[in-house]
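Email to the structure team, subject: Tryptophan--tRNA ligase model.

Hi all, the expression group asked for a predicted structure before they design truncation constructs. Nothing fancy, just the tokens so they can compare against earlier work. One-line instruction: predict Tryptophan--tRNA ligase, return tokens.
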Amino acid sequence: NTRVLTGITTTGTPHLGNYVGAIRPAIAASREPGVDAFFFMADYHALIKSGDAARIERSRLEIAATWLAAGLDPEKATFYRQSDIPEIPELTWFLTCITSKGMLNRAHAYKAAVDRNAETGEDADAGITAGLYMYPVLMAADILAFDANQVPVGRDQIQHIEMARDIAQRFNHLHGGEFFVLPQVQIDEQVATLPGLDGRKMSKSYDNTIPLFAGGKKALRDTIMRIVTDSRAPGEPKDADGSALFTLFRAFANESETVAYRQALEAGLGWGEAKQVLYERIETDVAPMRERYEALMADPAGIETILLRGAAKARAIATPKLAALREALGLRSSA
Ligand code: TYM
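Reply from the structure team: attached below.
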């Protein structure tokens, strides 16, 4: 069987980028025959970005409800919270000991933080935690603990999956065995990076996200109406490829709907109307999921039960895996 695995960091409200970049393709993959799916809430990763306990709890509930509302079947998939799996931080340490520091120096998130410090004239590492630096190793442990073959993610995560491969390869080489499967990244090229309100990558850190469910359909419409466009008036031809509206539309529409939307923009559809059409297209997909989402959000105890069952299933795999690794590393003998 093929193992498909992906996670979402519990630091905010799920947005359209999380949905089309990760949740939707992951659930589609989980429905293929011969696939075992592992989906989780990355709450250890959340600690790197946030010390706000209430926010992390709230985000976990929202993300879990989102996966379930989007069609994840917790009976079939293994659906869990990262912090319920003590084997993950244990494996993180084993991997840390063979990961080259130079590779971590090249990680995009760390480098971006160093560059920001350079711009403001600070010391290179000012305000940067070892947690941020180690982020890719923790993520490698998430993936390698379960021998995942495929990791569906948005484009911003490609480097992390490549690092996980590198780390796995190095461990296998140093310890002379096939201890880890080399994971492959799975990207939907159509939507590899969904733009946000300002045309940059939709991201919690840019504050430009369109929430998937939060605030209901009114918030969805109001937020879509705030997407930045150029100043071309109704009647003037629009540049579809240069417009975030078109990229967002394409992420939700089929081929013929996309062709029609492009033609309408090029024929001079006004931005206001174009936003209304986009809203209606997205709302058609989101409305039935939102109903399930709201029911799930009203039952946090039910979600907790699902996550605990998922953790037991996940540990049934990770516990023997780590036992074998401890033995290979000389920490325990098999006798
Ligand atoms: P996170 O929480 O930032 O994002 C979750 C997923 O959503 C995707 N995504 C996007 N895709 C397309 N367009 C966008 N604008 C967009 N914004 C976000 C991300 O690429 C990601 O797939 N480090 C990860 C979580 C993680 C993980 C893992 C993922 C921890 N361990 C192991 C896979 C495997 C993260 O912070 O994603």
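The mean pLDDT is 96. The chain has two domains: 2-194+300-328, 213-294. Ping us if the truncation boundaries need rechecking.
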